[in-house]
Amino acid sequence: MDNTLDAHWMPFTANRQFKQAPRLLSRAEGMHYWTPEGRQVLDGAAGLWCVNAGHARPKIVQAIQAQAAEMDFAPPFQMGHPKAFELAQRLVQLAPKGLSKVFFTNSGSESVETALKMAIGYHRARGEGQRTRLIGRERGYHGVNFGGISVGGLVANRKMFGSLLPGVDHIRHTHDPRNAFTQGQPLHGAELADDLERLVALHDASTIAAVIVEPVAGSTGVLVPPQGYLERLRAICDKHGILLIFDEVITGFGRLGAPFAATKFGVTPDLMTVAKGLTNGAVPMGAVFAKQHVHDAFMNGPEQAIEFFHGYTYSAHPLACAAALGTLDTYADEGLLTRGEAMAPTFERAVHSLKDLPNVIDVRNLGLVGGIELAPIDGQPGKRAFSVFLDCWEKGLLIRTTGDTIALSPPLIIENKHIDQLIGTLSDAIKRAA
Fold first, then answer.
1. Are the C-beta atoms of 364 and 220 separated by less than 8 Å?
2. How many of the other CB atoms lie within 10 Å of CB of 70?
3. DSSP letter at 378?
């Protein structure tokens, strides 16, 4: 092993395997990465679900450079800077009606922690302090902080870290074998939302603060919500006075062909978490959108008193705000927040063309996100998809895998020629993994 690689303990990585055969990236532009040796790699994953506008976009680069020269940092507690307020206003204009407040964080994980605290604090501020229970969903992914893994439902992310947060429960996931190889939203499974009623009966609604779900579950392998499912979940939350939180860290900023999944599905949550595409991955940043009534519940007591004892040193960091404003400009200039809608039919046909390949047991898609599920090798879960990942890397394509599901989420600037290359390379790799 190269000793220069030894000190870095890498996140969510098979460290020993990686350091025996490193996969290094040294440059990026548009739809591509380049290795230190100069080999070009097509980005089929938008980095890590985040580089929605493609790499090294001029307005984003220039905005970061200019901001670094003008002001590198401004304290976010009891102080502010103009770009933070400008960004919040622009985001509110993009969001579904009613989500009128924005609280800045530094990542999706921090956005989830913030939203959970907002939900519990909201009920306490209204005199319902007994509402402390949080409801997640099986197979859900909500980052890696303790709140996120508590409401999350990915076993590998939870099992090593003790008892987690108390007072958390989970509704059933939406993976339904009846929906195998569905193109777009599945027909079956809206009734799975009724599992929330089971938990209401078990715990009593008066103890439940919020329910958090990903509109499309990404990290578990691209699970698209059944038709009517999110609408039903919204209605049950309204019935029992429970806040609904959408985790849109992956689905936000054009991934589904609309600015947000809430826009796409016509269902507005009370709180909505974002990150990733907010700055096109250029500078770490996240945010929580809140409805006016959630914000206003905290606005009590003396005017000089802090209303919400929460925040981060780098909340609304000037470089992050500049990157986000440059990102929104780029999205607007090129219509990228809705471009996925136009490209979706071509992308859908392409990913479903893999249906009859060896070991493909399901294909799922919506907008510009796709999941190809492979049959696992007996006794070696995840190995088949990982071998496809390595094969694609060697052939000049970057994909994501989660378990034995291949996840595709290319930059929104993708063209037909890139789709052809992506699917062709992936098809060959799946055949070789048979």
1. no
2. 11
3. T
Q: Which two tokens stand for residue 38?
A: 């100069």
Q: How far apart are CA 329 and CA 1, in angstroms?
A: 44
Tokens representing 170?
């989970």
DSSP H helices in 189-309: 195-203, 229-240, 261-265, 292-298
- Angle of CA points 82, 86, 88, to nearest 5°: 120
Nearest to 247 by CA among 367, 161, 134: 134
- Among 157, 148, 365, 371, smallest CA distance to 273 is for 148
27-29 sheet: strands from edge to edge: 27-29, 32-34, 40-43, 397-398
Q: What distance in Å separates the CA atoms of residue 270 and residue 263, rounded to the nearest whole number?
A: 14
- Looking at the chain, how many residues does it have? 434
Q: Give the dihedral sign, CA 66/69/73/74.
A: negative
Percentages (nearest 5) of helix, strand, coil residues in the chain:
40, 15, 40
Identify the sign of the CA torsion 152, 154, 157, 162. positive
Collapsed DSSP state (helix, strand, coil) of residue 409: coil
Note down pLDDT in tens along the chain; length 434 residues. 467 999 999 999 999 999 999 999 999 999 999 999 999 999 999 999 999 999 999 999 999 999 999 999 999 999 999 999 999 999 999 999 999 999 999 999 999 999 999 999 999 999 999 999 999 999 999 999 999 999 999 999 999 999 899 999 999 999 999 999 999 999 999 999 999 999 999 999 999 999 999 999 999 999 999 999 999 999 999 999 999 999 999 999 999 999 999 999 999 999 999 999 999 999 999 999 999 999 999 999 999 999 999 999 999 999 999 999 999 999 999 999 999 999 999 999 999 999 999 999 999 999 999 999 999 999 999 999 999 999 999 999 999 999 999 999 999 999 999 999 999 999 999 999 99
pTM of the predicted structure, to 2 decimals = 0.97
The string of DSSP letters for 219-235 reads TTT-BPPPTTHHHHHHH
Beta bridge partners of 101: 290
Contact 409, 369 (CB under 8 A): yes
CA-nearest of 274, 261, 201 to 236 is 201
Question: Is 251 in a helix, a strand, or coil?
Answer: coil
* C-alpha atoms less than 13 angstroms from C-alpha of 365 in its C-beta half-sphere: 27
Q: Given the structure tokens 């780098």, which residue do they identify?
A: 314
- Looking at residue 290, its amino acid is A
